[in-house]
Amino acid sequence: MSNSNNLKVRIGVLALQGAVREHIQHIEALGAVGMAIKRPRELKEIAGLIIPGGESTTIGKLMVEYEFIDAIRDFHAAGKPIYGTCAGMILLAKTITEGDQPLLSLMDIEARRNAFGRQRESFEADLAIKGIGSFNAVFIRAPWIESVGEGVDTLAEFDTIEHGNVKVMARQGSLLASAFHPELTGDVRVHKYFLNMIKEA
Amino acid sequence: MIETGTLRVKTGLAEMLKGGVIMDVTDAKQAKIAEDAGAVAVMALERVPADIRAAGGVARMADPTKVEEIVSMVTIPVMAKARIGHFVEAQILEALGVDYIDESEVLTPADEEHHINKWDFKVPFVCGCRNLGEALRRISEGAAMIRTKGEPGTGNIVEAVRHMRSVREGISWLKGLRDDELFAAAKDLQAPYDLVKWVHDNGKLPVVNFSAGGVATPADAALMMQLGADGVFVGSGIFKSGDPAKRAKAIVQATTHFNDAELLAKVSKDLGEPMVGIEISQIPEAERMQERGW
């Protein structure tokens, strides 16, 4: 058993706060090994990292407190893929439109927090994701991507009534970000996409 | 097609709060301290439970001005309390843009028979429980998140522990039953059969369960997490203590690293005076908030 586990891809989920368990369940449904990451030293045991949804201010403060900022930047510099959902997307962004919370500033995007509004505006909708297809996406007090830099591939957009098309999923090399929560649905295709990024890395 | 207010969207926000601390605040200044300390959400209140207990009289929903002041101060979710059964207070809180409504025993109940029909709302609700049956009754009424009640405003963790253990014991008991025993179990629990069957099959509650009512120290928060809470509510414990900002931050860290005793030792140091606690047996039964709701 331990041998087959050694051959499986190990994916970490940053477990400072937020929806950790759901990501681990999706990872394991794909036959990979999911690990909750609470300390920077645990990063060396994994091939890819998911930064989950939660409160980005809380996760950001705890990342500073437990010295995750430089550790995750090093993880990225070593070419290992990172996927951020919702709060995780905000933390990956180079800049945010408002506020001065701690960020990893790895991905050349600008994120707008709570862009769709408060909880009563949270919603589900079908999206067309490049390379994946139609996907039922759950947005919770979600951010969107205000703008992207060169080299960032926009994978999904959402047509809002007031603001027209807004970007909700993007990839830049080994970085993946979505404003919505694939871990809250039974659909593992986004996680499979990320697993493939890890295998190619 | 866009759908708002779905069960997945309602329970989903609670999933995002997991591993976090939700703090009671009574004004914008406290809300800012809570957010800076790393709270995942704040609960907007007129008075914290310890003061409600001391003041007596009828406790109601907070003044909308106060709720709006808090909503505009922070970027994290804002919760607010409505009285049990008071669906108009809930309608008002929904109109104010509150992110979660706590149908709470901390306030004086408005209905001694019926809770709010929470399916009528787009905004999600959290409700208190002392045991599995009570949790499932609230979920059947549409609660998207549960918290064990404890005894609010006491700074005494004993009731929170009792209720968390009771929910857990209820779940283990259901898991061990045969399928044909679930009908009688539903009757005993006074809960709908479908929810009883779901818990039997899945071995957990269908929604997130936080701990509330009595958390005063980082060790209390970690205790509740080790007992299986998904996160903690801290009411009077922070702003009735000597150094709220420091204690709030320490409780946040203890909730994240609830299994790391060395870290718990470190963050528990020099926090100033904790809130003054109350021994439960000193509270007359009629004044115990946990008895409210059915």
TrEMBL record, chain A:
Question: Function of this protein?
Answer: Catalyzes the hydrolysis of glutamine to glutamate and ammonia as part of the biosynthesis of pyridoxal 5'-phosphate. The resulting ammonia molecule is channeled to the active site of PdxS.
Look up the EC number in the record and give it. Answer: 4.3.3.6, 3.5.1.2
Q: Could you say which residues form the signal peptide?
A: none
How does it associate, per the subunit comment? In the presence of PdxS, forms a dodecamer of heterodimers. Only shows activity in the heterodimer.
The pathway is: Cofactor biosynthesis; pyridoxal 5'-phosphate biosynthesis
Does the keyword Hydrolase belong to this entry?
A: yes
Family the UniProt entry places it in: Belongs to the glutaminase PdxT/SNO family.
**What keywords would UniProt list here?**
Glutamine amidotransferase, Hydrolase, Lyase, Pyridoxal phosphate
Q: This chain belongs to which protein, by name?
A: Pyridoxal 5'-phosphate synthase subunit PdxT
What Pfam families does the annotation carry?
SNO
**Gene3D superfamilies tied to this protein:** 3.40.50.880
GO function term, MF aspect, one: glutaminase activity
Q: Which residues are noted in the entry as L-glutamine-binding?
A: G54, E55, S56, R113, I140, R141
List the catalysed reactions: aldehydo-D-ribose 5-phosphate + D-glyceraldehyde 3-phosphate + L-glutamine = pyridoxal 5'-phosphate + L-glutamate + phosphate + 3 H2O + H(+); L-glutamine + H2O = L-glutamate + NH4(+)
What are the record's GO terms for cellular component?
cytosol; glutaminase complex
Catalytic site positions? C86, H181, E183
What is a biological process (GO) this protein takes part in? L-glutamine catabolic process
UniProtKB/TrEMBL annotation, chain B:
Q: Which UniProt keywords apply?
A: Lyase, Pyridoxal phosphate, Schiff base
Gene3D superfamilies linked: Aldolase class I
Q: In which pathway does it act?
A: Cofactor biosynthesis; pyridoxal 5'-phosphate biosynthesis
Q: Which residues fall in a coiled-coil region?
A: none
Could you mention a single GO BP entry for this protein? Answer: amino acid metabolic process
The protein's enzyme class: lyase
Catalytic activity, EC: 4.3.3.6
Known PROSITE patterns for this protein?
Answer: PDXS_SNZ_1 (PS01235), PDXS_SNZ_2 (PS51129)
A family per Pfam: SOR_SNZ
Look up keyword Lyase and say if it applies.
yes
Q: Where does D-glyceraldehyde 3-phosphate bind?
A: R165
Q: Which SUPFAM superfamilies does this UniProt record tie to the protein?
A: Ribulose-phoshate binding barrel
Specify which residues bind D-ribose 5-phosphate according to the UniProt entry for this protein: D24, G153, G214, G235, S236
The family database entries (InterPro entries) matched by this protein are listed as: Aldolase_TIM, PdxS/SNZ, PdxS/SNZ_N, RibuloseP-bd_barrel
Record-annotated PdxS/SNZ N-terminal domain positions: 7-212
Question: Which reaction does this enzyme catalyse, per its entry?
Answer: aldehydo-D-ribose 5-phosphate + D-glyceraldehyde 3-phosphate + L-glutamine = pyridoxal 5'-phosphate + L-glutamate + phosphate + 3 H2O + H(+)
Active-site residues?
K81 (schiff-base intermediate with d-ribose 5-phosphate)
Q: From the Swiss-Prot or TrEMBL record, what is one GO molecular function term? A: pyridoxal 5'-phosphate synthase (glutamine hydrolysing) activity
Query: What HAMAP family does the record point to?
Result: PdxS
Its family?
Answer: Belongs to the PdxS/SNZ family.
User: What the protein does?
Assistant: Catalyzes the formation of pyridoxal 5'-phosphate from ribose 5-phosphate (RBP), glyceraldehyde 3-phosphate (G3P) and ammonia. The ammonia is provided by the PdxT subunit. Can also use ribulose 5-phosphate and dihydroxyacetone phosphate as substrates, resulting from enzyme-catalyzed isomerization of RBP and G3P, respectively.
Subunit structure, per the record? Homohexamer and homododecamer. In the presence of PdxT, forms a dodecamer of heterodimers.
State what protein this is by name.
Pyridoxal 5'-phosphate synthase subunit PdxS
The organism's lineage is: Bacteria, Bacillati, Actinomycetota, Candidatus Aquicultoria, Candidatus Aquicultorales
